[in-house]
Amino acid sequence: MRKVIPFGxxxxxxxxxxxxxxxxAHRNLRLVEHGGIVxxxxxxxxxxxxxxxxMLSEQYAFAMAHLDRLNLExxxxxxxx
Length: 81
Known about the structure:
Elements: E1 29-32, E2 37-40, E3 46-47, H1 49-75
Antiparallel strand pairs: 1-2, 2-3
């Protein structure tokens, strides 16, 4: 007699959340350390770790560009001075 271990089904998100069917942007990530799993804490979809790293890198680049713009605005001379 074989022993069958039931596993729950997990939906895996495509490599891009910009899929027409995707309703969640997967911005709230949860890391499951055992097994190296990345999940969206909002919709509970298992995400590709490479996609998650890419998304975080993109968000970091946006934040750094925003800080650079703020620094340029604060260091530029104001009119009338």
